[in-house]
Amino acid sequence: MTGVPASAAGGHHRPAPAVRTAGLWNIANVLTMVRLLLVPAFVMLLMHGDGYDPAWRSFAWAAFAIAMITDLFDGHLARQYDLVTDFGKIADPIADKAIMGAALICLSVLDDLPWWVTGVILFRELGITLMRFWVIRHGVIPASRGGKLKTLAQGTAVGMYVLMLNGPLATFRWWVMAVAVVLTVVTGLDYVRQAVVLRRAGLAEARAVQAQERARTAAEAQTVRDGEPSGSTAEVRGGEPAGSAARTERRSASEARDDGDSVR
Fold first, then answer.
1. What does the domain layout of the chain look like in residue ranges?
2. Cβ atoms 28, 83 nearer than 8 A
3. Angle at 128 between CA 45 and CA 83, to 5 degrees
4. Are 110 and 127 in contact (CB under 8 A)?
5. pLDDT tens profile 53-69
6. Quick one: which H or E segment has residue 241?
7. Which residues contact 190 (CB under 8 A, 6 or more apart)?
């Protein structure tokens, strides 16, 4: 052994492994695309004919169920297998809002669901989405357990309204929708509270950082001023301080007078 590193001795240097990036065509994005394509298919199936055909409503329910199931898996797969992409970040929430919004609006058009229910749910979903963008520079509002329960309740209730149910099941679906609306409002208010707290914390942190920067700048400026010499000691005459030059001139004048006395 010579003790010389392999790179210095002409050995081969092994390159660092490249970081693998997820491509567009991965399973998570494909599921999101399928959910987007199911939106127009679901609307056509639900609104076929007069919109009250039990068979077509069953087909529409199947499309809606598939869309909701893909919503459960695409995000999990993206996080589990590092398949998160910019496309998925944008398309996934759009697909979620699209399938739910289409179902609510179609059911209200068919007079199966009151318009105020559709308005409350859509207002909450769109408002929370905009609020997330409002506070995104201060942090991310995590998905809460209540939000997940809200999504489950909404999907279950809307799916039951898509089907042509009668009797006790029709009454039961009304209560499921009532629970979904309550969870929608409660979780929406909680998201607003979290957004306000997050924004205030972010602004307070930004002000603290600015105050530290100003204090450091002032301290540096004071240090520079303290290190500068005063004007009385900075004056130089002939390479010597001004006071030394004056004393030299006085000594020369005194010697000149003494010389003159000796001559006289």
1. 21-112, 114-217
2. yes
3. 70
4. no
5. 999 999 999 999 999 88
6. strand 240-241
7. 144, 146
